[in-house]
Amino acid sequence: MGKRTNLFLLLGGGLTALMVGLALLGTFWTPYSPTAMGAGEKFAPPSLAHLLGTDNFGRDVFSRVLQGMGASLLIAACVVAIGCLAGTLVGCLCGYFGGPADYLLTRLCDAVTAFPSVLLALVIVSLAGRGTAQIVVALGILFIPSFARLVRGETARHRQANYIQSARLMGVSHGRILTAHILPNLWGVLGPGVVIGFNNAVLSEASMSFLGLGVQPPFPSLGSMLSDSQTYLQRAPWYALSAGMAIALLILGFSLLAEGLQRRRRA
Amino acid sequence: MKSLLKKCAALIITLFLVSALAFLAFSLIPADPATSLLGSEATPEAKAALRAELGLDRPLLVRYWEWLTGFLRGDLGNSYLYRMGVGEMLAGKLTVTALLTAESFLFTLLLALPLGILAGSVKNPWLDAACTVLDQAAMSVPPFFLGILACYVLGYGLRLFVPGAYVSPEEDLWGCLGYLVFPALSIAIPRAAMAVKLLRSSILTELGRDYVRTARSRGASERDILLRQVLRNAILPVITFLAVSLAEIMTMSILIEQVFSIPGVGRLLLSSISNRDYPVVLAIVTLLSAWIVAVNFLADLLTRLADPRVRLG
Amino acid sequence: MKKRILALFLAVGVLSGLLGGCQEATPTDPIPSDTNGTSTQAPQKPAEIAVGIAQDLDDSLDPYHMTAAGTREVMFNVFEGLVKPDSRGNLVPAVAESYAISPDGLTYTFPLREGVTFHNGKECTFEDVLYSFQTCAADSVNSTVVAALSNVADISEGEGGVVITLTAPDPDFLSMAASVYIIPKDGTDQAAHPVGTGPFRFVSRSIQENVILERFDGYYGAKPALERVTYRIFEDGNALFTALNSGALDLVAHLTVDQVESLTNGYQVLEGTMNLVQAMYLNHAEAPFDSELVRQALCYAVDVDAMLALTADGHGTKVGSSMYPAFGKYFDPALADRYPHDVEKAKSLLAEAGYPDGFSFTLTVPSNYDPHVDTATVLVEQLKEVGVDAKLELVEWNTWLEDVYAGRNFQATLVGFDASTLTASAMLARWVTDNGKNMINYANPDYDSAYAAAQDPSHTEEEQTAYYKECLDILSRTAANVYLQDLADFVAVAPNLKGYEFYPLYVMDMSLLFFE
Amino acid sequence: MLLEVNDLTVRFPGASRPAVEGAAFSLERGEILGLVGESGSGKSVTALCLGGLLLPGAKVSGSIRLEGRELLQCTEKELRALRGRETALVFQEPMASFNPVLPVGKQVEEALRVHTRLSSRERRERALAAMSAAELPEPETLYRRYPHELSGGQLQRAMLAAAVISEPKLLLSDEITTALDATVQVQILDLLARLARERNMAVLFISHDLRLVRKLCPRALVMKDGRIVEEGPVEDLFRAPREDYTRRLIAAIPTRERR
User: Are C431 and C446 in contact (CB under 8 A)?
Assistant: First the structure.
């Protein structure tokens, strides 16, 4: 058992470190400017000069993938942050106070979950224009319900616990109970939620960019690169493969890491 | 029974909220349907006249009320763009998307159950680790990327199918299902991988339970124990997951319809949004959410049926 | 998402003999010069084809309510006017047997052709023609056509046929008349089931899936070789390409060079142009584009040749003003070279205009048409060289129509304009100071007077042409916009399908195609 | 002799000392033998070994002969044929020992399903008979019920019914009364004694509670840290315990009952 735990942590940690490292590198330095055209021939196959070849404008795909990963990670982090913070707030209040407001908010969360994500993104994009910030907001809103549900259940469970009941009897304020007693107990459920949410956020961002709603050109994004590359699938398969594999490896790294952490906790 | 009624009420409230949200969303979006209908060369008067004809000049609440009462009567309204009944328009598209969803779901089941059981019965720790890594990898590939890969490798490379040569189910049901195989697989593989992971860990948990020891002490074979005893328990969380998958698959099909150019509800939704064809969008959004909500309800119900402890409790 | 690609380009009319240039298919693969296209199809091959189109016919099929160029492209095969254009840009008689114009330019006589029947089997009569003109004048969504028809004083049935009298002479009237499609008086619901007199009849449409046309056996002219044409709709450009390349489609037009070069299925590739003026249109009401120096600097900064090389492997035709090569009479290739690529010159002009360190602006581009987005992407990169920072903002087509086109709320935008009728005025009227469609707020008294002189019927044709050319020169001289190109238009055709011809219009004529 | 155990040693990888070390004892047909010890003294491991349930990874040496057959030489397949037919195990937690999603009756007849070719109707009849023998009221009703609908005592009776249904020669009873109320405990003991007597079935009765062992078993073993430290008639153990450990076990019994 011990060996296996290490394996997943090692693989996942290694892969995540590699991908995040590359993404970080990409935000500060890339071999070529990711938007510079004619950095090489159009559709140059992978070579030493262009590790992942070039695209239809002769832009260096490796540089674009690096920067695209950075963008994906940043967006995912923001999305999860919004979802987690707002979700925790909503979930805490609902779970702690209960009542009709809780009922309505829970239904609202259900409604948002049932609302097609593309439509919400399009609404926000039509209102505020296309762009990175808009997509962060749209996805952030979509990520609130899952966190809210998680936190609500946990809070409601703790509310019944003896130590909370006795704290209430002692006249401790609601705010104090929430922040001092309940919040610290939420980390256990929030931790895995954040990792899973992160993966979902990377995937959602890629989907939105794939539909042209995310990061706007000329800035690279893995999803829009994948969408663009479809036309050149036969001529430049490395273009589609690079973008697609980058998304897949990013997600794989995190899920392996999560698996490893989960197994270690269980062991 | 009472909890069932409560759930039904929650279901209806949720649907109501979704339609209200959708309606509100449209009132917020700038650029009205008249512009997209009449194009660049129309006069402002013509646009105003069209707006009046479509009833867009009336207050939001009135329009919502009319839409809602119509919807409850089964009247989905008329498409601004195509000037035909939304119901009539949707019928064909729903069939396609339903077929795609059904086929994806079938593949998910066919892949997830045997592989999950296999993964749950692997004893060698190294083999098990390899399976898990493989499974995680399958989970991590976005369906639309899988779709693109399928087009490239299976479509162009191996010539197993002709990307884009879609046949409608009315023309040729089997041909249509045949075309949908690869889109369905693109959706099903990552989903199935998730189900495999869940089933595997569920089986492992169940294998550690006392009743398994009891069964062993009666001389039951490992295969018998797995299939007859453990699986019935291990499948419970998977049932919920699979039911929820039905909703996710529907959502995923929006993207996959793009990749494989399948004229389903997803594509209609996207184009109707950009055309500001609100009656169509509203109908689709409401029906989609109804589906999602209903599927969650179904998940609940199935779990109740499959688990005697909840069934009566 | 890739919707209504060319909705802006309301190519409806026809040139009225003004058009000198014509276009012929310039095949990359050899095709036979004989394209008389009458029933010579090989018997073993069913005379059916699948054509891929990039947008649904989702506006309306009613001939007077069609707005999208893509819809007109298909319905061109179903509807005809009294006259119709041919592939060389001439107007040829259609429902009318011929036409005659009185010397004062006020009376047009159209003798009706014998035996013209509608797709519903009814014979076409004067009543139908009258009904069509009246309905079009009242209903059409095209304000230009409506304006031209308001000039009609009377339509009567005379000895020679239909006689139309105008209140004032209009050199563009015949091309306007070509866009008044003749429909039956007591006809069906045209929006749902269009009925016309063309060589193909409308069979069915399936939303976002296909539109099916069939050969109309009662057609008065030469019978088309094809029996059935299925237009299959792919709103995603990549999906369209994938379907084409896999052989699921026989004909796809409006491909990009990258797509064409990625084709591996051995189809013939024909090259033409899109008949539009792609430019970065600048809002003259917004600083810094109110400065002529700045606009000229941008023109020097942009390297159109390099842009064409990057986006289209050098295909496409440079334009230096608001006119494209199909208008051979007015188009002046020399204007395209007025601002050669010169970074130093651009920088010094910017410095002179008070922007030594450049400036930044927002370039709004509709997201639905990839070639514009691609061009804009390259343009942004080129402007960086002179220190100008353009921020690309992609917007939905409807937002563009509302904010940019109607609202004039933008700094710069990159789109293509084509002619709503094939007349010079269709390209040039919009830049007159008080024109309602003067999106860029261009205000130049010299231009206004030159345009007015060109429109004056008392001038001879040569004089008019000279004035129109002067208009073009003024636009170029003042760098009204950063003029780029007329995009290359590629058509991929199945190897044994012959007879495709480019029109100077946004149409595909299915009646000319045949299998060899 | 039904069962002969010699020098049985069970070692788990990574453990500092064997779970069972050099255990040796024997059991006659129909005999009820007690096995007493603290938790962790190796009683349950011994029971599992005797039941033919080899624990994964465990190293087992010595000899276990059931009717002369050496269990430790048997293949898994041969062991499986023995389990449930020759030996039967009953465990401590009746609720956990039942599969929650299968009806009780189906689980009672499990051994028949595995080892015989009886039709489902015949199996059902045998199960109902076994359940009646285990003094379960209304066996027809309970047959269809799910485990969570039965009380702990009922479940343990059902478990005994399931154990004896295929007429095993040896019943290994591992703390079967521990999770039950005191009154129910006595009933279960009585039932066990009666079933053993009627079927001439040997029972290894494992418990940490000397009281129960005294009540049921004529003879008992005392186990400590994997070794059998004392063996003899149960009354002798009570009267004159030779080991300190046994004394402590006796001392743990409430005074009034010790006598």
Answer: no
In CATH, D3-86+169-257 is 2.40.33.20: no
Domain count, chain B: 1
Distance from the A170 Cα atom to the nearest Cα atom in chain B, whole angstroms: 35
Cβ contact B214–D102 (<8 Å)? no
Q: What is the spatial distance between Cα D94 and Cα D177, in angstroms, rounded to a whole number? A: 9
Strands D3-11 and D59-66: antiparallel
- Report, as ranges of residue numbers, the positions in chain D whose pLDDT lies below 70: 54, 254-259
> In chain B, which among 230-289 make CB contacts under 8 A with chain A?
251, 254-255, 258-259, 269-270, 273-274, 281, 284-285, 288-289
Q: Are the C-beta atoms of A250 and A69 separated by less than 8 Å?
A: yes
Nearest to A218 among C258, C262, C377 (CB): C377
Check if D126 contacts B (Cβ < 8 Å). no
Neighbours of D127 (CB within 10 A): 26
Is B215 a member of any domain?
yes
B129 touches A at CB < 8 Å:
yes
Nearest CA in chain B to C2: B271
CB contact under 8 A, C143 and B41: yes
pLDDT at residue C4, rounded to an integer: 35
Interface of C with A in 264-283 (CB under 8 A): 264
- B188 domain-assigned: yes
Contact C353, C293 (CB under 8 A): yes
User: Given a contact as 3+ CB pairs under 8 Å, which chains touch A?
Assistant: B, C
**Calpha distance D127→D145 (Å, rounded):** 14
Q: Which domains does chain A have, with CATH numbers?
A: 70-266 (1.10.3720.10)
Which C residues in the span 377-436 are in contact with B, Cβ-Cβ below 8 Å?
396-399, 401-403, 405-406, 420
Per-residue pLDDT of chain A (267 residues; tens, 9 = 90+): 444 457 888 888 899 999 999 988 888 888 888 777 765 677 888 888 888 888 878 888 898 899 889 888 999 999 999 999 999 999 888 888 888 888 888 888 888 877 777 667 777 776 677 778 888 888 898 889 889 988 888 888 887 777 777 887 787 888 888 887 788 878 777 877 888 888 888 888 888 888 877 777 778 888 888 888 887 877 888 888 999 999 999 999 988 888 887 777 766
The partner residues of C210 in beta bridges, in order of sequence, read C206, C232
Q: Does D171 touch chain B (CB under 8 A)?
A: no
Cα distance between residue D134 and residue D165, in whole Å: 10
Quote the crossing angle between the two packed helices B278-306 and B2-28, to the nearest 10°.
Answer: 160
ipTM over 0.85: no
From CA B262, how far away is CA B274, in angstroms rounded?
A: 18
Interface test with A, best of C373, C403, C409, C414 (most A CBs within 10 A): C373
CA distance A240 to B141: 13
- Whether B80 is in a domain gets the answer no
Q: How far apart are CA C221 and CA B302, in angstroms?
A: 66
**Distance (Å) of CA B290 to CA A18, B13, B61:** 42, 11, 22
